[in-house]
Amino acid sequence: MTSLVELRILEGPNLYFPRAAVKLTLDITGLAEAPTATVERFARRIGISDARPGEPDSGFRQRFATRAVARLVRTVAAEGGTARLAVRVRPTSDPHRIVVAFPWRRRARAQVMGHAVADVLDALPTDDVETAVARAAEQVRDATPGEGPTTITPSVPVVAVTGTNGKTTTSRMVAHIGRTDGRVVGWSNTDGIYIDGRQVEAGDYSGPSGAGRVLAHDEVELAVTETARGGILLKGIGLTRNDVSVVTNVSADHLGLQGIDTVDQLAEVKSVVPRITRKDGWAVLNADDPRVYAMRSVVKAQPWVFSRDPDSPAVRETLSAGGRATTVIDGWLCVLTAGSDPDPLIELVDVPMTLSGLSHFNVENALAAASAALAVGVPRGSVIEGLRTFKPDAEHNPGRMNVFSIGEVTVVVDLAHNEAGLEALLEIMNGVRRPGARLLLGLGAVGDRQDDLIVRLGEIGAMASDVLAICHKEKYLRGRTRDQLDALMRRGAEHVGVTEVASYETEVAGLEALVAQALPGDVVGLMCHAERAAVYRWLGDHGATSDAPETLADKVRAARD
């Protein structure tokens, strides 16, 4: 058994450092269970003179282990020829595993050092600890240096967007506003790489490679990067800095993966994006999300907050500190600056993405996008025009709150991949439902979510809909079976008394069945993740039309009558 569980090279800014780093996941069972005398000898060898390691496998021993491993890394580095080295150590949910990170300048040498540190831990129970440390230092000293990091320093303005929900819509809006101003915009996201509105590469490019591929195009004048949790954790951010950062929100999603088990830890991951924003740039933060607003304490950039509440304490505090805010006053999207009257940009009813002001999430996305565009230097008039012309359809914002009509039935298609996303989808469905009409929901879940989150989706969907169906995502089972996901969602539905739930193998099959049951005025909603193109084809083949902003406004008015 080896102590090295994983060695990961992070190419750029990451959870641990604002530059390229090595992340080691180590099994410290040998150190935790070693005899106290052996551990004390080990401590002396690496320069810890006041060690109190505690008994084997005790809480004291676990805490000593994190301190000792950090000192071990520094000792091996120093004796191997690196005089000073920053080291970060974090516990995990497993008391016998820790994460150790340190910056690197030369890849091959850094990898050798990671393996050498693990070799020392492997040797603890059976070998001479003094010799093991010396041998590790010699391996590092003799290692071939290798290549340097590939982190890119951008030569054009960069807007980096992160968050749990809304980052794709917000980044699309920023890119559209930039193009409205006549700029050539490069944009990377979970769908691919886009240059001046044209997709040049398909695939998930929300990691570090996306930013690099965007900036590889010489004609790009403004880069907009969607930055996901996975990319930050697994590879680091591909750029040394950004000019404007946006954090939309943080909520429970992807927990239990890559050592991130709580929403607070997830917020820490997301904070990497504003932490690398230039000092003279702007960090655009959601003032209504306490975890996001708290990020202002770790950023060097100027704060620009957005909130639907102009009297929010966070707005007042930011303005008092010399920052800016974007909010809603009398139905107008406004920019606030300390000592000045509000600057009204556009009425929300004239921003199609807000769905006539119905979608609170998209109101926030519009506030965030306007803030980011203004912060990166897009003129006020272009921001207004961009907000006015960006539409919630399959052309401008595919897969996000796309509203269609099939006769007198409304269909809403949205990614809605977590609790917050499902609640936002249901908000729109309710907002366009005629009095007395029904909600029919196609519910789905991705397999790598925690059990309780999948159960909660079943609860939310069953409580809010009149007809509930499970629509599976074969490509996103991620280690589970359809039966397992079925059982979890059904359990949630049963918690609120719903036991009649049909199940379909695909999103298209579920959509077809729900539309077949729908009556005039009913609203069908689909959590669409796996088969977006096929869903659009099915809708087109069955005479569906995308709702224009005017059509949607009429539906909202009818729902309120």
Automatic annotation (TrEMBL):
<feature type="domain" description="Mur ligase C-terminal">
    <location>
        <begin position="399"/>
        <end position="527"/>
    </location>
</feature>
<dbReference type="InterPro" id="IPR036565">
    <property type="entry name" value="Mur-like_cat_sf"/>
</dbReference>
<keyword id="KW-0436">Ligase</keyword>
<protein>
    <submittedName>
        <fullName>Mur ligase family protein</fullName>
    </submittedName>
</protein>
<dbReference type="Pfam" id="PF08245">
    <property type="entry name" value="Mur_ligase_M"/>
</dbReference>
<dbReference type="InterPro" id="IPR004101">
    <property type="entry name" value="Mur_ligase_C"/>
</dbReference>
<dbReference type="GO" id="GO:0016874">
    <property type="term" value="F:ligase activity"/>
</dbReference>
<feature type="domain" description="Mur ligase central">
    <location>
        <begin position="161"/>
        <end position="373"/>
    </location>
</feature>
<dbReference type="InterPro" id="IPR013221">
    <property type="entry name" value="Mur_ligase_cen"/>
</dbReference>
<dbReference type="InterPro" id="IPR036615">
    <property type="entry name" value="Mur_ligase_C_dom_sf"/>
</dbReference>
<dbReference type="Pfam" id="PF02875">
    <property type="entry name" value="Mur_ligase_C"/>
</dbReference>
